[in-house]
Amino acid sequence: MKSFSIASGKGGVGKTSFVINLSLALSELNQKVVIFDADLGLANVDIMLGISPKFDIRYVLNGTLTLKDIIHPTEYKFSLIPAGAGIYELTQLSASQKLLLRAQMEEALYPFDFLFFDISAGISSNVLFFSQLAEERIVLVTPEPTSMADAYAYIKVLYKQGKIKNYQLVVNMAKDEEEGKKIYQQILYVVEKFLPEVKITLLGILPYDECVKKAIRSQIPYLSLCPDAKISIKIKEIAYKILNQKTQRKEIEFKEFLERFSNL
Ligand SMILES: Nc1ncnc2c1ncn2[C@@H]1O[C@H](COP(=O)(O)OP(=O)(O)O)[C@@H](O)[C@H]1O
Ligand SMILES: [Mg+2]
């Protein structure tokens, strides 16, 4: 199971729509995907999908249910771990809660090929927790200077506090490919200058597309609503790229995931 956190620094840049559509694209490539809704203030993967799961991670932490019990299947093949308010407690797990969760992770998560953490804006302890837990980090940025500044701030804090050196950038709401590449070059320039140990690659460029808004209003992923839109083609390209990053080291990946969890 390969795990990714999806962060941005700034809110409202398109993380949740990205995670949902990427998960759908990977599901269509026969991958088993689970989204962990870890956006503390604005947990809204369920709303974007038009579903209302009954249970969330709180039920696991208080011992009522197991992690496997709360994994919610969706009509789009991928699954959802609803976090609800329980997410507050994840950064302050007691030793016994941590052991409980760790013991249940293998059974619950091992069947999946990909795990995506849709995390909050900002640089809270939760954001750092999930960014360090994941094997890979995707940083979403838009062409707005505020978004670029916040993305850089996120990378800087994570590098300084967690020694995390690898990031994959997605430029969202780009006017065209050229603008997307320019944004990447600008961030790369600052990162290379001030954080020379950090490696940041360009995962993809997603255009601004009215279908994203239409899709959110209809509570349907844009990949389903507008399969031929440019953004749908681009998200499928990103899914292929991510699929190509998957190695045949599932056992090791999982062991490393559990180790990181124990050390956080
Ligand atoms: N590629 C895009 N083109 C047009 N609008 C977008 C795009 N991506 C996101 N949006 C808009 O941005 C808003 C925030 O998206 P959302 O996925 O909820 O962001 P976040 O999870 O980062 O807060 C939504 O209202 C959505 O319509
Ligand atoms: Mg969101």
TrEMBL record:
- Please cite one Gene Ontology biological process associated with this protein: negative regulation of cell division
UniProt keywords, alphabetically: ATP-binding, Cell projection, Cilium, Flagellum, Nucleotide-binding
What are its GO cellular component terms? Answer: cytoplasmic side of plasma membrane; cytosol
From the UniProt record, which GO molecular function terms apply?
A: ATP binding; ATP hydrolysis activity
Query: Where on this chain does ATP bind?
Result: 10-17
Record's superkingdom?
Bacteria
**What is this protein identified as?**
Flagellar synthesis regulator FleN
What taxonomic ancestry is recorded?
Bacteria, Pseudomonadati, Thermodesulfobacteriota, Thermodesulfobacteria, Thermodesulfobacteriales
